Amino acid sequence: MTTQTTQRTYRLEQKRRITGEFPGPKSAELAARRAKVVAGGVASSVPVYVADADGGIIVDVDGNSFIDLGSGIAVTSVGASDPAVAEAVREQVGHFTHTCFMVSPYEGYIAVAEKLAQLTPGDHEKRSVLFNSGAEAVENAVKVARVATGRTAVVAFDHAYHGRTNLTMGLTAKANPYKSSPAGSFGPFAPEIYRVPMSYPFREEAELKGEDAARRAITMIEKQIGAENVAAILIEPIQGEGGFIVPAEGFLPALAAWAKEKGVVFIADEVQAGFCRTGAWFASDHEGIVPDIITMAKGIAGGMPLSAITGRADLLDAVHPGGLGGTYGGNPVACAAALAAIESMEQQDLNARARSIEEQVMGRLRRLAEELGANSIIGEVRGRGAMLALEFVQAGTAATTKEPNPAATKAIADACLKAGVVILTCGTYGNVIRLLPPLVISDELLADALDVLEAAIREAA
Ligand code: PLZ
């Protein structure tokens, strides 16, 4: 297979460089200022403060250059300062920054909706609404499903992450830190949310087929809720915060078919997996799923805050005029950024680029896992496109109890950071390292980051 490299030129030198100690003096000064005014509930993964970012590089205020394997949690797929996005933003702010689409509308919003109708799965008639965050998109998908069906129950899955607002906290599976901790709870949570098991191939007792995992969930729904009461099932086609869990083949199609048969709205939360991340426009595309409603955010607008729901016209149009909206939803600057970011994705064929990243990373990590052997701390290497992960277990348990190893996971992420690679963890058990590089990262920089990661894993193993 050919290896697709990026043809772009970068504004910042694409090289990892740690100049002495970090956090350096300027980051330390900002940390001290922060401690006096920023709430402790907001945590940051790295102790350095950003001065600039471009391509696969983040430069801190003390002049250290880190390789970015997080993309600000899967946002800056086109890079953190894509020239086309930057230019579109500059152009738009020179005209108007805001009028509110609900007061005096503008073309950018419509152009984004046209693009979404074209890119999302299925060639049926579609409608879109734009918002600001992923959580807001999920909330609104549920609002639409409830009005359109006249039903109230919403089904979510184990290991799911859908946001931090009240409804989306309820939809999220993991208690600490999202819903509560020993310090207290953010509840009470919204009612009429039901949780069913996910297909998590690595952690199924026996090799459970996708259809069987779907049957397990469906049986539970029918028994405990009753299909006729279910407004929507909401699922991340590849789970993000929960651990980059790719369900067994056949799981998603079986759920979607059941939903269709029962008049249940099938909502795919593609906030993290969408927009070229998995080597396709949407993760739903890999199994030919056509969701009734799809939620999007993150990668959509090259770093500007924008989210969207796109779905069947009959569902979206069931809501009364004035029922959906918000002051900032579909902000004109964010819309201009989205149109530019999507054009960059098309022009640079970032779907192909994500598949090339998968080949390079998977090849190396699978070789490493094989070399370290079946009794090592690497439980599984998985993912699609540039949404890849390693799940770590206690040595010797990969084939049996698969005992999670959050300590090794943290040690590896810390070692990577020390060497100048920003890497994120995730997972219900905190034992997954996820790789989410900007899709415009160069092959050389990616290889350098993998050298660092590989050394850190060997050290921890
Ligand atoms: N749905 C699938 O991944 C956001 C959040 C990290 P917002 N994921 C990263 C954190 O600790 O807050 C996400 C997601 C999926 C919804 C959301 C929510 O998107 O833009 O953060 O609201």
Automatic annotation (TrEMBL):
PROSITE patterns: AA_TRANSFER_CLASS_3. It is an enzyme of class 2 (transferase). Its cofactor is pyridoxal 5'-phosphate. Keywords: Aminotransferase, Pyridoxal phosphate, Transferase. It catalyses: 4-aminobutanoate + 2-oxoglutarate = succinate semialdehyde + L-glutamate; (S)-3-amino-2-methylpropanoate + 2-oxoglutarate = 2-methyl-3-oxopropanoate + L-glutamate. InterPro entries: 4NH2But_aminotransferase_bac, Aminotrans_3, Aminotrans_3_PPA_site, Class-III_PLP-dep_AT, PyrdxlP-dep_Trfase, PyrdxlP-dep_Trfase_major, PyrdxlP-dep_Trfase_small. The keyword Isomerase does not apply. Its EC number is 2.6.1.19, 2.6.1.22. It comes from the Bacteria. Gene3D superfamilies: Aspartate Aminotransferase, domain 1 (3.90.1150.10), Type I PLP-dependent aspartate aminotransferase-like (Major domain) (3.40.640.10). Coiled coil: none annotated. SUPFAM superfamilies: PLP-dependent transferases. Pathway: Amino-acid degradation; 4-aminobutanoate degradation. Belongs to the class-III pyridoxal-phosphate-dependent aminotransferase family. NCBIfam families: GABAtrnsam, PRK06058.1. This is (S)-3-amino-2-methylpropionate transaminase.
